[in-house]
Amino acid sequence: MANTGEGDQTQVSRHQEVGHKSLLQSDALYQYILETSVYPREPECMKELREVTAKHPWNIMTTSADEGQFLNMLLKLINAKNTMEIGVYTGYSLLATALAIPDDGKILAMDINRENFELGLPSIEKAGVAHKIDFREGPALPVLDQMIEDGKYHGTFDFIFVDADKDNYLNYHKRLIDLVKVGGVIGYDNTLWNGSVVAPPDAPLRKYVRYYRDFVIELNKALAADPRIEICMLPVGDGVTICRRIS
Ligand SMILES: C[S@@+](CC[C@H](N)C(=O)[O-])C[C@H]1O[C@@H](n2cnc3c(N)ncnc32)[C@H](O)[C@@H]1O
What is the reported pTM? Predict the structure, then answer.
């Protein structure tokens, strides 16, 4: 939609008032990003996986194409090789990761649901990157506890992407901070949680949005206060907070 209406003018002055610097003033602008720089560069296998996912009833859970492109770029920039993903669903972010890391790179991928992972698996196999993935079906927390106990995994991960049960993010963080190497990166997805982090208490939110909102707000506060990491919260997708371990 063109940026000319009265509502837009109110929005412009509101943006100035709070020093708003986001360029995303409209859905049309988001569409422009997708059509100009994301879809034309999206690998065929990722497009195929995105289209398979679009037909699934829970498709709202998938990582967006622009976020997939961002993750792929970030992984290459940091030369990530040993990685982990918590929350796979049909594997869009997993494939973005698998394509970014070297041929002998690894992804420890965890999800309580294997069936959805298997929907995307043919596209991952076709892309020739399935050998990088060690998929574990089940809750992630016990696997992390086992790795902490084992000792040999401390400080070994270059990159960890967390996109699962929001009520466990702080539990994940307590463990992941030991498993990621100093200089490595943890990405927490959905940290703007559908914009609900700034919704007034009486806002009409969907039940699951309301339930997880307080956990996301707590996580955001905890990450901002954690001296072991540097952080950057990006308004990509549903909000993604990039944490770089510094100690
Ligand atoms: C938002 S989806 C992940 C989206 C995925 N990153 C993508 O690119 O499509 C969240 C996933 O977390 C999984 N999940 C929920 N609780 C979990 C847990 N305790 N351990 C591991 N995975 C979990 C769900 O089964 C679901 O597939």
Answer: 0.92
What domains are there in the chain, each with its CATH number? 27-245 (3.40.50.150)
Distance CA 221, CA 169 (A): 12
- Does residue 176's CB lie within 6 angstroms of at least one atom of ligand 1? no
Q: Please check whether residue 133 is in contact with residue 107, taking contact to mean a CB–CB distance below 8 angstroms.
A: yes
**Burial class of residue 240 (count of CB atoms within 10 Å of its CB; 0-12, 13-18, 19+):** buried
113 lines ligand 1 (CB under 6 A): yes
User: What is the rounded CA–CA span in Å between residue 160 and residue 242?
Assistant: 10
pLDDT in tens, 180-232: 999 999 999 999 999 999 999 889 999 999 999 999 999 999 999 999 999 99
Separation of CA 87 and ligand 1 centre (Å): 3
Q: Separation of 9 CA from ligand 1 center, angstroms?
A: 39
